[in-house]
Every structure is written in C-alpha cells, then in structure tokens.
Design brief:
The protein has 87 residues and is an all-alpha fold. It contains one helix and no strands. The longest helix is centred in the middle third of the chain and has 46 residues.
C-alpha cells in the first residue's frame, strides 16, 4: 500500500473532517478566483475591442481611386549602378 510518508492522515475523525472541509474550501476559493480572473479578462477585452472599433470608425478614410486597378502611393526609384549589365 502506498501512502505519503510526509503527511499521514490523522486518526481522529474530527480532524479528518476538518482537513477535508479545509481542502474543499481551498479548492472552491481557487476556482472562484479563476472565475473572477476570467470575467475580468473578458470585460477588459470587450472594452479594448469596443474602443478600437470606435477609434477606427472615426478615423479618416482615404478617398477611393477613380480606377479599380490603380494603387495610390508614393515611391522612389533607386538607381543601382553596380548591378547594371553591360552588353
């Protein structure tokens, strides 16, 4: 029979009940704290998502281009003289 050598169960019935109730209370407390943390993360996540949605909706949107195949933007042409091919 295997048992924990560093913690032998008490023989007194009241002590056994007390340790069992203490274990159940600790387990319930850990579960309650986990549930509160889950609710807090959900509330904070919802607030962050709503704030981001409202700030993006109020941001200035660029005017659509006249042609569907045109991509608007700025560019710079870089000259690479070392890579030029001589014929």
């Amino acid at each position: 029979m295997s048992y924990w050598r560093w913690f032998n169960r008490p023989h007194h019935p009241f002590a056994r009940v007390l340790i069992g109730v203490l274990g159940i209370v600790l387990l319930g407390g850990i579960l309650a704290l986990g549930l509160l943390a889950l609710v807090a993360f959900a509330v904070i996540g919802t607030i962050v998502a709503l704030v981001r949605a409202f700030t993006r909706a109020g941001a200035a949107r660029p005017a659509p281009s006249r042609h569907a195949n045109v991509i608007e933007g700025e560019f710079v042409v870089l000259q690479n003289r070392a890579a030029s091919v001589k014929h």
